[in-house]
Amino acid sequence: MTPSGSSSRQRKVIFCDFDGTITENDNIVAIIKHFNPPGWESIVGDIVTQHKTVKQGVGELFRLLSTSHREKVIAYAISNARIRGGFTELLDYCKQHDIEFLVTSGGIDFFVYPLLAPYDIPLDHIYCNGSDFSGDRIEITWPNPCDDQCSNGCGMCKTAIIRRYPAEQYERILIGDSVTDFAGAKLVDLVFSRSHLTEKCKELGLPYKEYKTFHDVLTVLIERDQGEDANL
Ligand SMILES: [Mg+2]
Ligand SMILES: [Zn+2]
User: Fold this and answer.
1) pLDDT tens readout for residues 164-189
2) Which pairs count as long-range contacts for 73-79, CB under 8 Å and 24+ apart, including other chains?
3) Considering every ligand atom, which ligand is closest to the CA of 162?
4) Which Pfam families does the protein's record reference (predicted)?
5) Beta strands in the chain (DSSP E)
6) Ligand 2 mean position to 157 CA, how many Å?
7) What residues have CB less than 8 Å from 9, skipping those under 6 apart?
8) Nearest ligand to the C-alpha atom of residue 193
9) Distance 208 CA to ligand 2 centre (A)
10) What's the confidence (pLDDT) of residue 1?
11) Which ligand is nearest to the CA of 149?
12) Cβ neighbours of 118 (radius 10 Å)
């Protein structure tokens, strides 16, 4: 009675969003709101309604900020963020059960790495955008671009990373909350969703489980593991 499409022989890999998922709020929006440069609201609106690509919109948002505020921007981003409950427990479970845990974030290096530093995640398992403070304005850099199979202008392309883990070898699991997770959600075996991503999964008929904290995610993973063991 093994559920079709998943097998205990497949290694699990988790692709976990950062902003609004690992952290309770969206850090990019929080930074922009706090420093409040003229013109940010319409750019955020255009990203949410998908009138601008994420890459285009995020690049434009940070170009509104002067690099002279570098220290203030970084300090605000780090002090403002709250890590969602159960994150440590989920990471521990993944380690104990040989589940590969990747952070696939559309966030920016200057807050993603410091906020994840207390957790024992290998640096090559953290994907995010970069930043360049050498000019007058904050310039976002894009070390993880879309591959030839994605034309969404992701900036940090989650689907390109997901495709490196073939469905035949991996049970692919995505955890996310919003627009940057929509394309990846269509590829994976299971989505843990909240907020806009839940609505999208309903709309597209994708398999999803809603979560509020990572404890909820863990409960489902444990139940599924026990189900698989019972089928051996
Ligand atoms: Mg998010
Ligand atoms: Zn892409």
Assistant:
1) 999 999 999 999 999 889 999 999 99
2) 73/31, 73/35, 73/110, 73/138, 74/110, 74/111, 74/114, 76/30, 76/31, 76/34, 76/35, 77/27, 77/30, 77/31, 77/110, 77/111, 78/111, 78/114, 78/115
3) 2
4) HAD (PF12710)
5) 11-16, 100-108, 126-132, 139-141, 170-176, 190-193, 208-210
6) 4
7) none
8) 1
9) 21
10) 43
11) 2
12) 10
- Residue range(s) defining the domain that contains residue 26: 11-230
Count the domains in the chain: 1
Q: Closest ligand to 156 CA?
A: 2
Q: What is the pLDDT of residue 225?
A: 87
> Ligand 1 centre and the CA of 211: distance in Å?
14
Residue 207 CA, ligand 2 centroid: distance in Å: 21
pLDDT tens figures, 91-113 = 999 999 999 999 999 999 999 99
Instruction: State the CATH number of the domain containing residue 77.
Output: 3.40.50.1000
Q: Which amino acid is at 164?
A: R
CA of 186 relative to ligand 2 center, distance in Å: 13
Tell how far the Cα of 65 is from the centroid of ligand 2, in angstroms: 25
Tell me, yes or no, whether 43 lies in a domain: yes
Would you place residue 56 in the very low, low, confident or very high pLDDT band (cuts 50, 70, 90)?
Answer: very high
Q: Is 17 left (phi over 0), alpha (psi -120 to 50) or beta?
A: beta
